[in-house]
Amino acid sequence: MIKRVIITVLDSLGIGAMPDAAEFGDEGADTFGHIIKKNPDINIPNLKRLGFCNIKGAAAGALAAKDPQGSFCRMAERSKGKDTITGHWEIAGIYTEKPFRTFPKGFPRAFIEDFEKAIDTEVLGNYAASGTIIIEDLGPEHEKSGRPIVYTSADSVFQIAANTEIIPLEKLYEICMIARKMLTGDMACGRVIARPYIIENGKRTRTADRKDYAVSPPEKTMLDLISTSGREVYAIGKISDIFNGQGITDSVHTKSNKDGVEKTIEAMKKDIEGLIFTNLVDFDSKYGHRRDGTGYSHAIEEFDALLPDIINSMKKEDVLILCADHGNDPLHSGWDHTREYIPCVIFGENIIRGKDLGTRDSFADICATVTHMLGSENTGNGKSFYPSIKAG
């Protein structure tokens, strides 16, 4: 009997462009494949052992394991998007048929003026940019004037950056909450994100105090169904923000991938039955968006070295699922997410070894499988692959 599922999202670790990638400007994108090309000697023995590299499109061949210890598949995204919320919501069993509105040319002037009135100050920026670049470009003016920096990206996000010496963290959060309340109706966007930074050794450096203010899921997700069945949903990293706390019984934020793994292990040591749901955001925020293929490969190696600690903390009734939520190819143009297939590896004592589940039609198959394992209701989306991987 499965009593607990641990889902760990390797944020943005896509494994190749989907057939419709060109519609998103992402033809030829391949996050993992291009990372391997950048670093062919990547040292990931534990991911290989579980079968990660046996997945179609995940550098299968030279890196494939002869006797993979987990089951595995490639998953297509059915929802119309390539952003964090859309990907996580589909993993949790709901589709986003209409993509969140994006603002590639910045937010309308009338909205910005209303926002400035609401926060009692003018803003800087209001254009699409890399977060690390815009704080260098506009940081000096922000620090002189006290005006917060507003920017967006190809995703549906309203991001507000500030030096915490100029705008204290709690004030920055307050400004973000005002924006969240205003970004509704025709102006609705997926997330408002607080992007605090400091000056450290003469360099502007973003801190781990980022906070996301997301829209609530429009219907019940896997999280709601598991928690209402009397089990726990323990959210680690930005999971609680992505779901706006909906369906979550307890949560903790993280400072890094390593911290996320450590907090996952801490949760696993507790007597929790249900779901432990972790997002490891460094892959995406520190390396994908910054188009740093070398750094991304080192981050994968770091996670691989920590993976045995997760596995050794598993109980007999546990199942581990490793997946992603979209791509973010560090060798692609621009600095935004890429429309890609995602990997999915399933491991546990009660899971068949070496089962190739092929290409799945939807990320929601994870929801259908997890709720099947835990005996909870399903959202009605996705198809469970539990019968195909159940041992015994």
Describe this structure in words.
The chain is an alpha/beta fold. It has 13 helices and 14 strands. It has helices at residues 31-38, 45-50, 84-91, 109-119, 131-145, 169-182, 222-228, 239-242, 257-268, 282-288, 293-312, 364-374, 386-389, and strands at 4-10, 71-75, 124-128, 149-152, 157-163, 191-200, 203-206, 211-214, 232-236, 250-252, 274-280, 318-323, 342-347, 356-360. Helix 9 (257-268) packs parallel to helix 11 (293-312) and helix 10 packs antiparallel against helix 11. The longest helix is centred in the last third of the chain and has 20 residues, at 293-312.
Quick description:
By secondary structure, the protein is an alpha/beta fold. It contains 13 helices and 14 strands.
Query: Based on helices, strands and strand pairing, what is the structural class?
Result: alpha/beta
Into how many domains do the coordinates divide?
2
Uncertain residue ranges: none
Q: Briefly note the CATH topology name of the largest domain.
A: Alkaline Phosphatase, subunit A
- Going by CATH, the homologous superfamily of the largest domain would be Alkaline Phosphatase, subunit A
Percent in strands: 15-25%
- List the helices and strands in order: EHHEHHEHEEHEEEHEHEHEHHEEEHH
Q: Count the helices. How many?
A: 13
Number of strands: 14
What spatial order of strands do you see in the largest sheet?
10-9-11-1-12-13-2-14
- Average pLDDT score: 96
Rg (C-alpha, Å): 20 Å
